[in-house]
Design goal:
magnesium; alpha/beta; 24 helices
Amino acid sequence: MVGRCALGGHVISHPHQPSTYATQCSSSSSHDTVSGLTRGGRRRSNRSEAASPMEGSGTNYYSFAGCPFSSFHIMATGQIFSRNTQALFYNYKQLPIQRMLDFDFLCGRETPSVAGIINTGSEGFQKLFFGQEEIAIPVHSMIEAACAAHPTADVFINFASFRSAAASSMSALMQPTIRVVAIIAEGVPESDTKQLIAFARTNNKVLIGPATVGGIQAGAFKIGDTAGTIDNIIQCKLYRPGSVGFVSKSGGMSNELYNTIARVTDGIYEGIAIGGDVFPGSTLFDHVLRFNNIPQVKMMVVLGELGGSNEYSLVEALKEGKIHKPVIAWVSGTCARLFKSEVQFGHAGAKSGGELESAQAKNQALKEVGAVVPTSYEAFETAIKETFEKLVEEGKIAPVSDVKPPQIPEDLKSAIKSGKVRAPTHIISTISDDRGEEPCYAGVPMSTIIQHGYGVGDVISLLWFKRSLPRYCTQFIEICIMLCADHGPCVSGAHNTIVTARAGKDLVSSLVSGLLTIGPRFGGAIDDAARYFKDACDKGLTPYEFVEGMKKKGIRVPGIGHRIKSRDNRDKRVQLLQQYAHTHFPSVKYMEYAVQVETYTLSKANNLVLNVDGAIGSLFLDLLAGSGMFNKQEIDEIIEIGYLNGLFVLARSIGLIGHTFDQKRLKQPLYRHPWEDVLYTK
């Protein structure tokens, strides 16, 4: 029968080829079959109807919709990867992708093997390194969009968890551009895996896994973490192709065998770990058959394991002469006979069961049909070496010459950690540190702040002033925040916030619109008040000299004057602050000077009273000077930077947020100012 291969060209399929999948299903403790599959071309209606893997002398195989098959048509074509292969990577993992790109560079590829990343709910780019060059790899939120954007990427590497791996893999298999799907997750439900296998086989797709580390074509392409670190890849000579095709169930053991094969041969051409689950998407036989059709592969190394009947399809193929290259095989798990009961060995499919599933029975069966089977795993390396040397002597292998791989640039982070390089930092931070088990504010651990009952004022003292101020100081800060949190809806900041909120804008936009009105005329005079009061007081100027001097300069005295408060209607907030200071502060020198200035300005106008900006500014000077924790230079710097205005910004944000919520809760419509409140004039 002739079929059309997904890679192009006609390939011959064998309807009487031994079915690896059939033997897996029948040897499982469960009698479930793949949905839609029938055995021997007839539909099975009874789920309990299961055959042994070696039933009779005939070949077992399954068919889908009445069409018998035993392995992928695509598998018979041989090579599934090349130096031009590109993949889509599902569920972003930085390290496996970077390892793929480093392998690309090591092999001298011109194009990165990762064309795109699929991360549900995310779009944009991820920055990674391709050699010394930093590249941006597109990120897509949907599998369909990624496949449409990267039609040449025909491998789908699925790093999803076992909970979502089946659904995302099926989505990928349904895309016409995807040819190979590798499922890394372990523990994918067997019923889901069976459906994936059925779909893949009937649609000429290659499924590797589940529970696989992936695969590698030396010098061309690798899946995710296959073969481990760059150092291991270089040691195993995987940066250039050799002459050995290797397939195993175990991903961990595949790393060991890559090293072993590199020591005694010219290295591998391709290596695949099919995965340790009960139902692998592709089998040992599938890949050995591929290797048999790859001219560059001169011999095959197979590492099986006890449990299941996967290896028997390879036995049948060798028996029928379908494999004509040397096969060196070992089935691990011979120690299982030492146990009196069934034992699970790591993988879901690696469990001691019936005699046919034992490692001894499989090794014996392989040996009887011509595979080179050593007496123990320790002798496996020798068997590989002797077979390779024999092929070299016969002229069937011309050992590949070693080439020196390029040097992979070391990541800056790794180089710094190892002490090889030093690099300048770009940001300096002295107020907090989040590198330990818990954040620290000015060296004080978060747990200490909570356990000792620190308040907002204490946190401000740590993050703003980098020290723990006395409690009377931090309580004064908290009083300022409470007194300045809001001053009604009519002031400019609240008005702007209300108008913005009613325009349907979000919280941050509404808050910022109000905050942007804070300045010299609204709430932003605290720093200036402190600056001018301190300068005049320290110079010993009388209130008359200070006020008249400011008048000559054309500068209003900051902290003096109010639109609605007066001599007879004092600001209660100012009075509360003054009362607290008289009770708790060791000195109120600057506040007393501000009051003297107020006395003089009230002689000029009834509304030139000390306002809340002036009160906070003068009292903060007394706090800084009286606490004994700041020198003159530090006090001047605090005022110059704008600490005191920051206190008003922090406080008023509370009220502005409240006004935003209030307008949205009341569902107020868009604000439009009334005509009668506007003077239209020329």
